[in-house]
Design a protein that fits this description.
ten-stranded mixed beta sheet, globular, 346 residues, alpha/beta
């Protein structure tokens, strides 16, 4: 009797298993597999939000739909460049990463998440740029006109954290490099002691180190602090929103940050690959570059777009990461060797 009961139970089990498999085969497939559309997941450093969501994504969606007749949608996540890089290395399923610094793209490559040569894309993978400026309260009550003025007694400076924010690392390079560039202009040689002295003096006035450039801006918008070093576009967006009255101070010498976009190859399947690669190419198109400029980035492909914008700053002595020999040298020599070891620890 027990044997017959057991056999009946086994038969019922197999029948249920068969029905489960059959019903599973009838379940709707994900949109990316069924032809109903593809969703791309983009992880971007904090200040990319407006230009992507309001300008670049809609432009690409319309272009792809007109050319291929299928829908593309986007899911985004924004945080400090170091933070999103760490998240991808820990396994989040980003298809594309747009980063503040090239070093983070190289970290993804070293981790095996990026296998294609991102520098082979137009403009060596750089999709836009922006100079670093100082935001102050309207009317500039503290009389801040250059980086050196941030070292004045009583100035309360907000500065994002270089551990999590690519923008913070750009800011450190802007302060330190500005003194090198000015000294070289005056005497023919960069003065590293002068750069270190200014960086130490400015850092003594830092009262808060938020995790990203956008978090730092949010703190400043609430009325906290006297000044903020940040991307030019953050100041222009604040003036445009007109929520917090600010003035934008353009230093005499400052750095242009340059931002790479990479495919996270480990996460991109065959169905998504053509769309992902088309989006990467689109980022350098005139339409996308125009969208970046509209939201206060500088174009890296079309100088005429920069000239058309009346809001973008005139920089007397601009420099780039190449002044330090690229990120391969700038990070160990300046961010670690000078800032972390000789400024932050003291």
């Amino acid at each position: 009797m027990r044997l017959r009961t057991f056999k009946m139970a086994v038969a019922v089990g197999f029948a249920l298993l068969g029905l489960t498999l059959l019903s599973g085969s009838c379940l709707p497939k994900p949109a990316s597999e069924s032809g109903g559309g593809i969703n791309l997941t983009v992880y971007g450093f904090s200040i990319m939000k407006e230009s992507l969501e309001k300008g670049v994504y809609p432009g690409f969606v319309a272009k792809w739909k007109s050319e291929h007749g299928t829908e593309v949608s986007f899911t985004s996540s924004f945080a400090g460049s170091e933070t999103i890089t760490n998240q991808i290395l820990q396994g989040v399923k980003a298809d594309i990463a747009i980063l503040s610094i090239e070093r983070d793209a190289d970290r993804l490559k070293q981790g095996g998440f990026v296998t294609t040569d991102w520098r082979s894309s137009p403009n060596k993978g750089i999709i836009n740029k922006t100079p670093f400026v100082i935001l102050v309260r309207q009317g500039n009550p503290k009389g801040i006109h250059d980086f050196a003025d941030l070292a004045k007694p009583g100035v309360k400076l907000i500065h994002p954290d270089p551990v999590s924010s690519g923008g913070a690392q750009w800011s450190v390079l802007a302060i330190y490099g500005s003194e090198l560039v000015k000294a070289e202009k005056q005497s023919g040689e960069p003065d590293h002691a002068r750069g270190l002295q200014l960086l130490r003096a400015v850092w003594k006035n830092v009262i808060s180190t938020p995790g990203s450039a956008r978090e730092a801006r949010t703190q400043f918008e609430t009325g906290f602090g006297d000044a903020l070093i940040t991307y030019e576009l953050e100041g222009l967006l604040m003036k445009e929103n007109n929520k917090t009255p600010v003035d934008v101070v353009v230093p005499q010498a400052t750095i242009f940050s340059e931002h790479p976009a990479v495919v996270v190859d480990r996460n991109v399947n065959a169905a998504k690959r053509p769309v992902v690669e088309a989006f990467i190419q689109y980022l350098s198109s005139e339409d996308a570059q125009r969208a970046f400029v509209k939201y206060h980035f500088w174009s890296v492909s079309y100088e005429n777009l920069n000239l058309e914008s009346k809001e973008l700053a005139h920089i007397q002595m601009p420099f780039t990461i190449d002044y330090f020999g690229g990120w391969g040298r700038a990070y160990p020599e300046v961010i670690e060797g000078i800032f972390k070891n000789q400024v932050q620890r003291k």
